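Revision sheet: structure tokens.
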Amino acid sequence: MTIAIPQKTLSTRAWAELGLLSLIWGGSFLSIRIALDEIGPLTAVAHRVGWAALILWTYVILRRLPLPRSPRVWIGFAGMGLLNNAIPFTLMAWGQLHIETGLTAILNASTALFGVLAAALFLSDERLTWRKLSGVSLGFAGVVIAIGPQALASFDIRSLGQLAVIGGTVSYALAGVWARKMLGGLTPQVATAGMLTSSALIMIPLAHIVDGPMTLDLTPRTWAAIGYYAVVATAVAYLLYYRVLAMAGSGNLMLVTLMVAPVAITLGAIVLNEDLPPRAYAGFVILAAGLLILNRRRTRPPLRP
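Predicted:
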């Protein structure tokens, strides 16, 4: 008798929802850039996590999901709010003031590379195999090309903007390790609501201190941008994210970072008249090849008694 080892395959529905998620997140880069025309980066992040937290807690209460009581879990929420929201959202929003939205999305795709390295460093069950090492190396080569080697030698404001986005992806990677260690066993909706609440408690006072008092007297254009990236691209997107995760698996979900970048590049070109240098596209192709190597499943022979 042959025992087949099941593999997670992408159904038509999973592909459709993965595509929808990439469209939602691809549009978030444009909406954030539009909001930054009127409000500061910290205020933009405070709006994002604050409104999204309110929506997700409403969802949790209506669904009557069990709430955590352990202090360890709330410490976990605080760490996730810092690593997965406050730090990366702020760094990327600031970076977008100085670089194109499309380039931000390309650099954001390197999150998976840093995630592999962070898992290998801090998690005993995540070894850095030769396949992973080759994928990471190729991906980093793509990132360097997209940034431009000369940017690594001259730290002007544009270079710092690109490095800020890379710093955000490193923070995302560390958040994945933190979640594995601190937030196991929680429903995704509760974990996300707790995370966003913690980040809101960090960002709202910080925005008040750095950017000045938050005001609701904003232009309709700015409110539309905030509504999109806070409600659609954060609260709704997180709920959709976990649906896709259940259907497609974490490895296939990595593909969304590749699908987000072309959406952001296209929107940036159409709405903001952005024009990326050819090296950015070449770097993205090489980065995509590295991520596909990381996502490739090794074929395993069937088990026979």
